[in-house]
Amino acid sequence: MNNRILTTHVGSLPRPERVVTQLFAQDSGLNYDPGEFDSVMEAEVKDVVARQVAAQVDVVSDGEMSKISYATYIRHRLTGFELGEMPRAVPRDLDDFPDFKERLAKLGATPKYHRPICTGPIAVKDLAGLHKDIANLKAATKSAPQANGTPRRAFMNSASPGVIAVFQPNKYYASTELYLQALADAMATEYEAIVAAGLDLQIDAPDLAMGRHIKFRDVDDNEFLRNANLQVEALNHALRNVPAERVRMHVCWGNYEGPHHHDIGLEKIIGVVLKAKPATVLFEGANPRHAHEWEVWAQAGREGRIPDHKILAPGVLDTVNNFIEHPRLVAQRLLTYANIVGRDRVMAATDCGFGTFAGFGAIHPPICFAKLASMAEGAQIASKELWK
Ligand SMILES: [Zn+2]
Predict the structure, then answer these.
(1) What is the pLDDT of residue 140?
(2) Residue 162: Cβ-neighbour burial (10 angstroms; 0-12, 13-18, 19+)
């Protein structure tokens, strides 16, 4: 029991300029010096953990410093992927507003980096990068202990089999099922290594929501949900050796400031989301398109559809604008969810990452940390209310 609401976030944090330079060097192979890459990452992970601690974040991450994006990093760790050019599906909401879509493109809001395509059998290739990430985060949390002297609790992100399958095209496996199965078998090694190292594992699964208006934009809801079920089955298989309470899962509709009016409603996906093994669910709860969906959670709670071991970690901060949410708004949001599942099953989180793709964050970095501090203040207000 913590006797208060803990705070966390979704994973990525703004990468400093020298981190971005290293990531693009690694991605392109030009001017890439592995020794320099490693020493920059080690120092910057330590720094970003210290900044989270200063903002009173309870469960911290490495800010995904060493990853150019949350899913494409897998090409360095698995066999079977080749870089290629594939036309990128545009989110359906942007198609309704072509001038706006053009404006985003002109602003360079669409990241340009290499795209892995599956062209061969998938297997674990090289986990040196993973082990370096783990060592850097563990060293950083040791040097920023909790009040009781123990190392700070931390989580590490990892891509779900589904998000890899949905966004990295398959040109090798005969069916989606076989592609997912191969990904699940290969990713299980990474999942188990993160948990064995004493870190919480965060599965990033935007495929379960964002997939609807991008990859599956031209099919109906049933077809999308049939695939989402396969993605969750593959994930659960990959997590078979990992206890549910050590895993959290992030679901989102895409971290971009756009109309989002074609986002599939939470009420349609909540069933498949709750079928996934991870005990903690992190989801969008702050932005104008999804903040109202606490009602869907409330109804699921009334109907007894939220399993007792599930912990809800709603986004109480929007991650695509520079407003600093008022701590009282943060507290109101947390109290709403505490009403649904009880005070011990709520954690404060963010809608998505703050720097989803290296070099393309919408948030001014110092404002990101000020938002996190406001989240901690709001969690304190709500905790006072809930534990009085
Ligand atoms: Zn997200």
Answers:
(1) 96
(2) buried
CA 353 / ligand 1 centre spacing (Å): 6
Determine the distance separating the centroid of ligand 1 and the alpha carbon of 206, expressed in angstroms. Answer: 6
As a residue count, the chain comes to: 388
Phi, psi of 229 (to 5 degrees): -65, -40
Helix residue spans in 31-127 (DSSP H): 34-54, 92-95, 98-106
d(CA 152, CA 327): 24
Confirm or reject CATH 3.20.20.210 for domain 17-386, answering yes or no.
Answer: yes
- Give residue-wise pLDDT tens across range 76-105: 999 999 988 777 778 999 999 999 998 888
Domain ranges of the chain: 17-386
Tokens (6 digits) for 223: 């077809």
**Distance from the CA of 387 to the center of ligand 1, in angstroms?**
31
**Lowest-confidence pick of 41-50, 138-147, 285-294:** 138-147
Ligand 1 centre and the CA of 229: distance in Å? 19
Q: How far is the CA of 12 from the centre of ligand 1 (A)?
A: 9
Task: Give the pTM.
Answer: 0.96
356 CA distance to ligand 1 middle (Å) = 8
